[in-house]
Design goal:
seven-stranded mixed beta sheet; 2 domains; Rossmann fold; 11% strand; alpha/beta; 13 helices; 279 residues
Length: 279
């Protein structure tokens, strides 16, 4: 898709601004990055994966957004008791926890959508309603599931993922992170920083895409994916990787961050969504 390529070219500009390489390195990086985009099929998760690999190699940096990730984790985790008190108790606590988890999806350096004041923006999003809300079905499915796989997305918002998992009160939940650092997506380090292991099992998916590209993931992850009673897919990146999957047990929780995905979902850019694609 040409729209995806336009977005990826913005990523090139952002990486150049971030690392400020000398003229020769800049020239070589831009040349190689544009070639990746021109030769690609417009598949956004794969393009992003290739560009991030190139950037890490070109600029000799294994975790490009490590500082931002740590800051977001620390900022939101330090307020954990506050967020938990906002969720409260009772039947409505689940809906509030879901909304909190989806609102955290704004923390995404890949989509150029990180606000300057993360806390204020997240609090504002908590007041919005979902454009599509299948959370009642999700609540029922969680209650009936014997095993749940939760696909993580970005650092920072992982704090709200943990809160939602706690609210589920389910004993068999597995939280999946990326196999290696990519943009500001969650890794085992991020999970450790917010003590995710205290509330569920944590695994990595064995691949470095800012998405879940199932055929590229480890056999261990694929087995857990295929055997899970319920899959909760967090964020637009995971949606892009799995939106053509025909399984009926996948609930997508995300904010639509571009017009292309908004059209796919039948919502507006910036809308928050909790949706099963296959009823």
């Amino acid at each position: 898709m040409e729209e995806c390529k336009v977005c990826q070219r913005k990523t090139i500009d952002g990486l150049i601004k971030r690392f400020q390489p000398d003229d020769e390195l800049k020239k070589q990086f831009v040349l190689k990055a544009n070639a990746i985009i021109d030769e690609g099929d417009g598949n956004s998760p794969l393009l992003a994966t290739q560009l991030q690999r190139l950037a890490k190699k070109s600029f000799n940096c294994e975790d490009i957004y490590s500082n931002e990730k740590q800051h977001a984790n620390e900022l939101l985790f330090s307020n954990y008791d506050y967020w938990k008190s906002n969720i409260g108790l009772g039947r409505d606590s689940f809906h509030r926890a879901v909304k909190m988890a989806v609102s955290g999806n704004i923390i995404d350096y890949g989509a150029h959508s990180v606000p300057d004041d993360i806390l204020a923006h997240v609090k504002e999003l908590h007041q919005r309603e979902f454009a599509i809300d299948h959370s009642e079905r999700l609540y029922t499915d969680i209650s009936n599931a014997k095993s749940i796989l939760y696909l993580g997305d970005n650092a920072g918002e992982i704090v709200f993922d943990r809160l939602l998992i706690e609210t589920m009160n389910q004993s068999n939940v597995t939280f999946a992170v990326r196999g290696e650092a990519v943009i500001n997506d969650v890794t085992m380090l991020d999970a450790s920083q917010v003590k995710m292991e205290e509330v569920c099992t944590v695994i990595d998916n064995g691949f470095d895409a800012p998405s879940t590209i199932l055929e590229a993931c480890s056999s261990e992850f694929q087995k857990i994916f295929n055997e899970a009673d319920l899959i909760i897919s967090k964020g637009q990146g995971n949606f892009e990787g799995l939106m053509n999957n025909d399984q009926k047990n996948i609930c997508f929780m995300l904010m639509a961050k571009c017009d292309l995905i908004a059209r796919k979902l039948g919502v507006k850019k910036g809308d928050m969504v909790v949706k099963y694609l296959n009823d």
